[in-house]
Amino acid sequence: NAGVMQNPRHLVRRRGQEARLRCSPMKGHSHVYWYRQLPEEGLKFMVYLQKENIIDESGMPKERFSAEFPKEGPSILRIQQVVRGDSAAYFCASSQQGGHGYTFGSGTRLTVV
Amino acid sequence: EDQVTQSPEALRLQEGESSSLNCSYTVSGLRGLFWYRQDPGKGPEFLFTLYSAGEEKEKERLKATLTKKESFLHITAPKPEDSATYLCAVQAGTGNQFYFGTGTSLTVIP
Q1: For every residue of B19-83, which 3-state class applies, written as one string?
Q2: Spatial separation of the C-alpha atoms in residues B104 and A42, rounded to whole Å
């Protein structure tokens, strides 16, 4: 009974490249959330998705960031033309129903050099 | 703006020395308050959910309480393995997101 799976665990990108972060929710969970954790800061909400739908993207930067949760396969958080300020830990969480307690993955640590 | 503030930022305890962590919040329409534990390099691990003032939850050496303005995480006779960052989060109004505090880093010295 695997938990929330995120990959890769660590990702290094040069400025201007694209970063793709993947998240497979827990079995039976159809709600996925992405959060970003900057050093010395709390977790900040980015986006909430259900299968094939973005429900709430109020925390997503308007440019360069996008997210999807297709009918088949993992949820993807995509960051285009990365900059040093994108360096952070990105966590995915899933839940069985919206608005209930989450289960978090172990995160992807993105470093932009 | 909804806010969650945790104190202290860091706490060092001797093994067996009980203490409390604080989470104060200013939100409209609290739907739930959540405590998580986060170890270095890992994702937050769920501990408790509290929904209404006066509610208490316990798990081993941890006990969480909730009032209308704050929550406390009481740690009784801590052990070194309790060392971690403890995060508080609230869910409020009709939104789907959690608002997290910046956490309390707890170190328990043998």
Answers
A1: EEEEEEEECCCEEEEEEEEECCCCCCEEEEEECCCCCEEEECCEEEEECCCEEEEEECCCCHHHC
A2: 11
C-beta atoms of A106 and B42 within 8 A: yes
Sheet holding A5-7, edge to edge: A5-7, A19-24, A75-79, A65-68
The structure tokens listed for A21 are: 């972060």
Q: CA of A108, closest CA in chain B: separation in Å?
A: 10
Confidence band, pLDDT 50/70/90 cuts, at residue B48:
very high
Which among B31, B96, B102 is the nearest to A48, CB-wise?
Answer: B96
A32 CA: distance to closest CA in chain B (Å) = 11
Give strand pairing partners of A19.
Answer: A79
pLDDT tens digits for range B76-110: 999 999 999 999 999 888 777 889 999 999 999 99
Whether B97 sits inside 8 A of A45 (CB atoms) is yes
Q: Which residues of B touch A103 (CB under 8 A)?
A: 46
Residue B84 pLDDT: 98
Q: Which residues of chain A have pLDDT under 50?
A: none
Question: What is the residue type of A99?
Answer: G
Query: Distance (Å, rounded) from C-alpha A68 to C-alpha A77?
Result: 7
